[in-house]
Amino acid sequence: MNQKRGFRISFNSPVILGFTVLCFGAMLLGMITRNTSTHLVFSVYRASLLDPLTYVRFFGHMLGHANWEHLMGNIMLILVVGPLLEEKYGSANLLFVILTTGLVTGIVHFLLFPHIQLLGASGVVFALILLSSFTSIREGSIPLTFILVAVIYIGQQIYGGLFVHDNVSNLTHILGGVVGSGLGYVMNKNKMNRY
Q1: How many separate domains does the chain show?
Q2: Residue 1 maps to a domain
Q3: Residue 154: inside a domain, yes or no?
């Protein structure tokens, strides 16, 4: 019997796909509420520690975006890099990287920039980019690709922070990269120690 096999869509990366859906949901909710929800939940800024939403915003700011262009730029990179990382490190570890990146960038921004609102997934993007350069790590060596990406990336962010005046949070990018590379090193070291 000759059976034709059809193509089917696979739900290959639940954390990355879930994160993407939440970002689109936050954007649509922001449009419906005329950015009230974006201000209340999906951005981080200095607020009272007695306000429960302050703690939600430490993570929620990753989901909020200023506009569709901002969202699409971040999501495209996350969708390209994220599924490969989720396959290599597992869903739980990748979720931990995303949440840690959000918490670190949220708290640092809360403490250092009290009058500036931060939103967007760019910290996550840079965490994933630096994490991806650890995929070929071997015991006792650091990949040259990681060194090149780190030098170029950090140099670009420092230059942008000093000489380019725009609405880009270069510190968030650097912190995301530090979280991604740090957790990448730890996860790969733990994986090598198991073998």
Answers
A1: 1
A2: no
A3: yes
Q: Name residue, tokens 């990336």.
A: 153
Is the separation of the CB atoms in 124 and 76 below 8 Å?
no
Residue 19, phi-psi category: left (phi > 0), alpha (psi -120 to 50), beta (remainder): alpha
Tens-binned pLDDT, residue by residue, of the chain (195 aa): 556 667 787 778 999 999 999 999 999 999 999 999 999 999 999 999 999 999 999 999 999 999 999 999 999 999 999 999 999 999 999 999 999 999 999 999 999 888 889 999 999 999 998 888 777 666 566 667 777 877 787 777 777 666 656 555 778 888 898 899 889 888 877 765 665
Element housing 127 (H / E):
helix 122-132
Tokens, residue 84: 């490969």
The CATH number linked to 94 is: 1.20.1540.10
Please give the radius of gyration of the chain, using alpha carbons only, rounded to the nearest integer. 18
